[in-house]
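In response to reviewer comment 3 from the previous cycle, which asked for concrete evidence that the modeling workflow produces usable outputs, we include below a single protein chain processed end to end. The sequence was submitted unchanged, and the resulting structure tokens are shown without manual editing.
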Amino acid sequence: IFESQYMTIGGIIGPQEAWLMIRGLRTFKLRVERSSESAKKVVKFLEGHDKIEKVFYPFSDSFPQLKLARKQMQGCGGMFSVLIKTNHIEGVERFCDSLKLFLMACSWGGHESLLFPTCALLDSQNYKSSELPWNMVRIYIGLEEPELLIEDLDQALTSLS
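The workflow returned the following structure tokens.
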């Protein structure tokens, strides 16, 4: 009987989850705007850093489809990817482990800054079928002060020397 009810009315969230979603939606616009503005500053810093091989961010001047991105989007949000300039996975691990303000997770969109290195997936079947570079790190900029995040990224990148 459960299968037929599920197929008839679909999956629903519980009251607590609904309340959490409504609560989060009240500040969603402000959080996205703050994250997006901070990400611009962080991206600009990273694009000029000698330990960064490449930055993937649609509103970057170096992005090949910048014109299309500006045509289709008002803002870019706080998520982007970078390629760390290192010859070994240990370099990416050292970079990630050296960060103090970023959590390693992939629950994008919250208040805290997060990152996730693709090399963490090396043993997974999904990674083996993808073409993601092992030195790519996905970064989400949260609500912290961008200057503090830049300092943290800089000290972690310096640890690669």
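DSSP finds seven helices and five strands in the chain. We consider this sufficient to address the reviewer's concern, and the full set will be provided in the supplementary archive.
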